[in-house]
Input
Amino acid sequence: MEYCKYHPVEAATYSCTHCNVRQCDHCVDASSGSVRCLVCRRELENQGPGDSIVPFWRRLDKCFSYPMTMQTLLLIILASAVSAVAASAGGLQSFVILLVVSAVTTKYGFLCLQQTAAGKMDAPDVSEAYLGGIKLIIHIILIVLGIVFMVLAVANVLGQFAALAFSVFWLCCLPAVFINYARFEEIGAAINPVKVAHLVLLLRGAYLLLLLFITIMILSVGTLNQLFDGQDVLSAALQSVVSYYYWIVIFHLMGYLLFQKQHVLGYVSRLDSDGDVHNRSDKQHTMARIGVLAKEGMFTELSSELKTALKSIRMISGYMTVTLIIFAHYTRPPNWISSG
Ligand SMILES: [Zn+2]
Ligand SMILES: [Zn+2]
Output
């Protein structure tokens, strides 16, 4: 792990290629919108969270409690109840209802994936999931049809055995298909076997572990299916609750895998809870500048920094005096005290 030049025990989160130093969140200048070096004023490179990300298999407890928010649980329960009732009714109507319910939950799942990949480790608001939902569902259907078409084509040209192998390939790559769709929001990126295989190769062992976890979850739903063999609506709803719950956990896991592997995938995102450098107060900016300038021994810059800081303190004390006078003016005792 790389450390901050000015805080040798803090992980470096930025680097300046000009000064050839690495900085932590405290030691950067974010007062102008972009994040800049406090010494040379050039824009810094975001290092992301570096090696400090815990792999997903070490935070499984958190992954499984991800859907434990009021809104998400409500969505799961509602979706399960509706699909259980629809499934028991049968017919075309129930098929349409089931399609709509899976569309809604899948749309929400993709939002969970994308937000997790961007470093947000809390389940998003359900209301955020319904913008542009139709497009996503049409894309997913096209992706599935595309894969089926490719397998059929392989069967025609190369025979049954090759088609079987190709099907197994797609089955193992299905999470990668979802991940690639969430990353690029393009059908091409999701069903291009080369791009999908490339992603799997980049993620390597972590991807295999993800596959293992997904398989375990699917098997456990299967076991539940056998346990509640009854055909009544209640047991069907109960099974649906578990499936939808896992469905959201799986999307969260896929998103976390992206977050975990961001350095190999070439993007940078930070944990939301890490504190945003852009949301700092003026005082914090000034203190950061003073700290770095002092440690660099840049005393001319330091003294001018201190002077402006002092000026602003004087200005603040001036404002405070004016405010106090106005306050005293408006809160003077009522007339009956002075006249009485
Ligand atoms: Zn630092
Ligand atoms: Zn610099």
